[in-house]
Amino acid sequence: MSEKQQAGLRARTRRAVRREIAQAAEALFVERGFEATTIDDIAAAVGMSQRSVHRYFASKEEIVLGKFDLVVDDMLAALRDRPAAEPIWTSLHRTFDVMVALAEAPGHAELVEPIHRIVFRTPALLAAYLQRLQRMQDAVVSELRARAEAAGTPYADDDPTPRAVTAAAFGCLIAAQHSWLASTPKGSLASALGRAMATVGPREPEAHHS
Amino acid sequence: MSEKQQAGLRARTRRAVRREIAQAAEALFVERGFEATTIDDIAAAVGMSQRSVHRYFASKEEIVLGKFDLVVDDMLAALRDRPAAEPIWTSLHRTFDVMVALAEAPGHAELVEPIHRIVFRTPALLAAYLQRLQRMQDAVVSELRARAEAAGTPYADDDPTPRAVTAAAFGCLIAAQHSWLASTPKGSLASALGRAMATVGPREPEAHHS
DNA sequence: CCATATCTGTCAGACACTGACAAGCATGGC
DNA sequence: GCCATGCTTGTCAGTGTCTGACAGATATGG
Hints:
The structure is a homodimer of 210-residue chains.
Chain A: H1 9-32, H2 39-46, H3 50-56, H4 60-81, H5 88-103, H6 109-121, H7 123-150, H8 161-182, H9 189-199, E1 200-202
Chain A binds a DNA duplex (30 and 30 nucleotides) through α3.
């Protein structure tokens, strides 16, 4: 009843309206910038009232970053499906692959780059994006703790290891996005991620879950 | 003329008023929370108008995170003073030590923990903090590029290495802050940082500036 | 003592966001 | 076909952050 991805008619039309709003909004954002576009402009573009737009998106940033929230669930599911014996760094790399694949999926890959650029250029959007990444890291850390617990080598409650490794991996993701935006000619985001994640990695001082 | 840390009378009184506002605001934030405290409340607490408070702080978040901006300059200076032959990871560790030392300095160390907790608990504040860390990373990456340039082994423009290493280090900083807040009994932030930065690190596939 | 610069309060406004209410429109039982 | 129910929508009103403009108070420097 809450906010599931039901196949009901209501939920379907709701998602359609969401897409319509996001589509019109992104066009305006690309055209005249994020901050220079008001909610009223977006509402007028789709023929709705300002209030209704806010019924579909809790905040202005969510219009741009809303898609990311949907990917997060897929990424966490991908992480859970990774074999327990796999090195953590590899599992995190494969988790990011889910996001990269959707970003480079054919059809709407043209909008990905300008939107990406806007997110990293607009302070408010970058802050919101980093906040979402941070929130996702909490979920990843929980998963890593559960995995270590299942392996018989749980982390101590105040052990910074799982969060440090996770934060380092997410740092590589952001570095890859930066590098991808700066690359000329434009390479693939997947290769940028691979290169970034090859430059750093976890250190295993003693035996700790192979 | 712009915004330097002059020793003039004007700049001195201005910083005094800033401190007074921040002090009163932090008391209110700790007492009733960040979001539940309005600018009008803060203005009333220091006997000023709402408009004048905004003349000293561009945003509500800056009242809390303004001190961080001052530390950033010291940290960047510390990074520049590190010997060029020192491993990057160690240089970054020493850079963070500057911030840790100020956080654990005697006198105002009691306020550090509750403020820390508020920052990590309040979404808007966490987002603003992460944004500032990201902006600082840009400066650190520039410094690392300049250092590699001076060493005769410059990075390519789209090489994600310097940013990935930097992002990983900052991830360790955040992980250390988390671990420090979660630790009972409360350990030192410096030791938490040391443990976090020991868990991950750069990989040197080939010879690249010792 | 005066010209200049700075600080201040007040007013007004843009903008994001929220709650409340009533009207429109659908679905589903009768 | 008809009506009750529930969801969506627009309108209105309000809060809170943040900004610009103006005028008065205060301080600085010649």
